[in-house]
Amino acid sequence: xxxFLLPHCLPLVAVRPQLPRLLEFLTEAQVLSLxxxxxxxxxxxxxxxxxxxxxxxxxxxxxxxxxxxxxxxxPEETMQTALxxxxxxxxxxxxxxxxxxxxxxxxxxxxxxxSALHVLDLDGQHRPASLRDLADFTRLIDALPMADIMHAxxxxxDIRQEAFDRILFSTIMRYTTKHxxxxxxxxxxxxxxxxLASVVQGSREAVRARPCFSFVICLNSPLVHSAERVQEMMxxxxxxxxxxxxxxxxxxxxxxxxxxxxxIEQTANVLAALTLMQLLNPGHPCIFSIAxxxxxxxxxxxxxxxxxxxxxxxxxxxxARHYNLPFQGGSGLDSCLPDAQAGYERAMxxxxxxxxxxxxxxLAFGMMGQLLTxxxxxAVIDNEIFAAVFRLAEGITVTPDTMAVENIRQAxxxxxxxxxxxxxxxxxxxxxxxxxxxxMGWDEFQRERGGKDMRQRARDLARxxxxxxxxxxxxxxxxxxxxxxxxxxxxxxxxxxYAKP
Length: 501
What we know:
alpha/beta, TIM Barrel, 2 domains, eight-stranded parallel sheet, 47% helix, globular, disordered N terminus
């Protein structure tokens, strides 16, 4: 089998550049103008918080709370106090320490795709996602070196949907040692997931010390914190689970049609949630997050990969830096196939995101069709794209060695550098080596690659990874206990759902 198909050809250590601060779409005056407008939204318009215990927390810290309408208006002083306690340097832990992620304002990482209901499988079939797909996607993402943080690539449609997050958690823990970006269905999800993590990590105390998962809080636009989401925030504060405070608006539908207006809405929404988290637990790890996009007025659907969505994410990264907060952005691909459209959409996102201050690029692998489909082939292609993009984001190193004046002297006018020791020692360090990309003439391409296009080559590599890659296994006792608890938790949660009037 050709070497390019083997998973061990993937680099063992993925380069993670620090942000060079090259790309900014907002002037300093515009940032300050946006900031002033965000303060006005928080203090004059407010957010609706649909959970009374949270309303009482806000009221006890100087916010204006209308308990009848559930509107909270947050003064600038309260928000600034929250920002002062919110950390921007902390760790997201893996179950294997080699996958620990040090969160800073300078580094770039990736997060896998999220919660697709369908898959485009390796036989080319578009079908509902299954539990087997969840396991296979987890192993695939675990093997891709450019993927830093695990997420549930699919929500299986062949399991009961009540409390599905427990089944996701128990399945994913079996097939990765990377940090898990989790999700839930209310406050009880958080406590249940802490219990499941304790099976893997040994105890609840171990989870509290090094939580192997974080929790995304999906905020509604415009400016609504639903009861379930607020309950999740309060439980995460109690258990000290890091949170991704994620607003997802659609320009023209759940936010103003203008980029600036959408930016103000989502930033105010996130800062209101961040304020609550810091009031509950000063110093709690929070990541400013969005998955916002456009809105197709013709079909009434989310638009992920438009130029406007890219501009919105880049500008939001700039606002997050203004508030000294780590930032996660990402909106997936609109293309339904791993084709030329998917390639240009991914590159149109990945390049500016990596240069504009997006610390965590979410929905980075295989997410297609407006977040409804996960593709095995596209996930592998995305790994290749991000490897190239991160090389670009590394920039240029200028040192006496890299300027290589003595090597130029050695070659002299009309000379060559192929036989120089400097070239041999530094070739791999200074020249990115692709895995799927073809760099050869037609005859060699036919002979060495069988004339296969990028999608076919990605399919071969994905199949080989799934055949060969086996993450470090949990013990059989841990697997059985995870499954037992997850099913028991799901049954209990379902019973509560059915019991509601």
